[in-house]
Structures are given as structure tokens and as C-alpha cells.
Amino acid sequence: MPIVSTVNKKQLYYEEYGQGIPVIFIHPPGMGRKVFYYQRLLADHFRVIFPDLSGHGDSDHADQQISISYYANEIVQFMDRLHIDQAAVFGYSAGSLIAQHIGFTRPDKVSHLVLAGAYPAVHTMVGQQLHKMGMYLLEKNPGMLMKIIASSHTKNRQLRNLLTSHMKKADLGHWYQYYQDSLRYSCLGQLRRFNMPMLFMYGGLRDWTFTHAGYYRKACSHAEFFRLEYQGHQLPTKQWKTCNELVTGFVLTH
After folding, report:
1. Could you tell me what percent of the chain has a pLDDT over 70?
2. What is the residue range of 52's domain?
3. Are strands 224-228 and 3-5 parallel, antiparallel or unpaired?
4. First vs last Cα of the chain: how many Å apart?
5. Is the keyword Hydrolase in the record (predicted)?
6. Phi and psi at residue 184, in whole multiples of 5°?
7. Are 100 and 120 a contacting pair, CB within 8 Å?
8. Do 25 and 228 form a contact (C-beta atoms < 8 A)?
9. For the whole model, what pTM was predicted?
10. In the sheet that 47-51 helps form, which strands lie side by side, from edge to edge?
């Protein structure tokens, strides 16, 4: 498995497949790169890259408090170490916050911004409760949280076990801090600064993030939106075929 050393000498593990336009995937709290199990198939069209953020999966722990901005800077360093001048950046759930932060702080590094279940800030009661529940379970019963997350992402037992075993590698402190900063983070004031091609994917009524799409529709008139009816939030695993098709068509035509 390849590794990259950041400027603070920490090692980030990642998986890489395929050739062509680089697409970098950013995972939500705790899950690590394995949540993009099915996006490896995009290697038929792109150079797909799946890093574990610090404190997740097989990567080293950070020596400081982590935050959305910390992880955004980490991904930029990661790109520099791999000599990637520009890439399509795919952010899933809270990973979309990191992708967006890179998008308005380092737009030169982002050729396309692809976001699944994105929100610029947690402005719904459901979203706040989910983040707080995650933080609570991390302190009281992290095993239960891992089981809930894995089960919500797939009915495939083998994949559930893979997701769970990878989550067990995460540093619980970093996981908690990722949740915590996602809950208080906001880039609402930065949305009009996005000029790169943007693709938003949401689930249907069961996707708590869909109500946030209005912020993007108002501020990013050039963006494309897709809503997969009768689906929940977990599009990369539960609707991976449609998700991959949307990514392929969007990146290749913009």
C-alpha cells in the first residue's frame, strides 16, 4: 500500500488505481477510504485516489487538534507530494466540507467539485442530532456506532465487515474532533466564490442533507444537481452504479 509523508513527517496511506484525470475522494468521520469501495471501478476512466485522513484507517495520527481546515490543508499537501497540480475532488457527507474548503481556499487545485450529500453548514435539527449522537456514541459505545454506520451503508455482509474493521483502526479522538468541527463549521459566506464545474448528488426524502441544496442552487447557478428518489444519504455504497455514472459523465464532459 503506498504512503505519502506530509510536511510534519506524518504518513498518509492511500489506494490508487487507473490513469488519466485524477479524482481524489474525501471520506466522512471515522470511515476512512473503504467507504469508496465501489468507486474503485471508476479506474476504467480516471486515476482514482483514496487517502485515509490523519487518524483514520492506516494513516498516522495528527499531533494536534484536527479540523476541517486542517484536513483541507492535508489534502493539498497530499496532492503536492503526488505532484498533482489539479484534480477533481469528490467529497462525501462531512467530507464535502473539506472538499468545499479546498475549493474556495485553493481553487487552483480543483478542476471539478463533486459532492454527495453536501451541506455548507449543519442547519437542520436532524443533522445536528446525528452529529451529536455520533459524538455521544464515540464516548459511550464506539462499537455500536461502527455497527450502525456499516449497516446503514450496505446490506452486503462482506462489505459491512470491511467497513467495520477499517473503522476500528480510527483514532477516536480524531473521529470525535472531525464530528465536532463539522457541526460548527460554515462556509455559507463562501459559496459564491466557487467557479469550477460542480456536481451535487442527493438522496430522496431519507437524505437529511437534501434541504441544504437550496443554499447551493441560490449561490452556484452553474452547478448541476441530481436527486436519487427513494434513496437515503449513503449514495457511494447504496447507489454506486448511478453515482459512478454521474461522476464519469460529469468529469468527462466539463
Report:
1. 99
2. 3-253
3. unpaired
4. 32
5. yes
6. -100, -5
7. yes
8. no
9. 0.96
10. 3-5, 11-17, 47-51, 22-26, 87-92, 110-116, 198-203, 224-228
110 grid coordinates: 480543483
Across 222-246, average pLDDT? 94
Q: What is the pLDDT of residue 123?
A: 86
> Half-sphere exposure (CA, 13 Å, Cβ side) for 88?
24
**What one-character-per-residue DSSP string does the chain give?**
--EEE-TTS-EEEEEEE--SSEEEEE--TTT-GGGGGGGGGGGGTSEEEEEPPTTSTTSPPPSS---HHHHHHHHHHHHHHTT-S-EEEEEETTHHHHHHHHHHH-GGGEEEEEEES--SB--SHHHHHHHHHHHHHHHH-HHHHHHHHHHHH-S-HHHHHHHHHHHTTS-HHHHHHHHHHHHH-B-GGGGGG--S-EEEEEESTT-TTGGGHHHHHHH-TT-EEEEETT--S-HHHHTHHHHHHHHHHHHHH-
Show Cβ contacts of residue 98 under 8 Å, excluding neighbours closer than 6 positions.
26, 53, 68, 71, 72, 75, 91
Q: What is the CATH number of the domain that holds 16?
A: 3.40.50.1820
Query: Is residue 9 pLDDT above 90, yes or no?
Result: no
Tell me how many domains the chain contains.
1
The cell numbers describing 138, all together, are 464515540
Q: Per the structure block, which three cell numbers stand in for 136? A: 455521544
